[in-house]
Automatic annotation (TrEMBL):
Organism field: Phocaeicola vulgatus
Protein name as it appears in the record: Uncharacterized protein
Organism superkingdom: Bacteria
């Protein structure tokens, strides 16, 4: 996909921005008919230690620190192939 924005996969930075209360524009894979499209999503912190990447009512990635996950926040974002636009303000 030709995205004319500088995107990042620095998931530690993404988590820091979400912990600061920011909502961040993200891109996530949307597979259909054996092709991959990229959806524009919103990342946000939805509760204490809970994070969600959503678009049109679909949750592409989520993480809840209180659960005994095998994966970290960074692992979840990487598995979902999340990219985000770094804020410049």
């Amino acid at each position: 996909m030709n995205i004319p924005y500088r995107t990042s996969r620095d998931y530690q930075l993404l988590k820091k921005l979400l912990d600061e209360g920011k909502e961040i524009v993200c891109f996530a894979d949307f597979p259909i008919d054996n092709r991959i499209f990229r959806d524009v999503c919103k990342a946000r912190k939805i509760g204490e230690g809970r994070y969600s990447i959503t678009c049109r009512g679909c949750e592409y990635a989520s993480f809840w620190e209180n659960h005994n996950y095998k994966w970290t926040f960074e692992d979840e974002m990487q598995m979902a192939n999340i990219e985000f636009i770094e804020p410049n303000i």
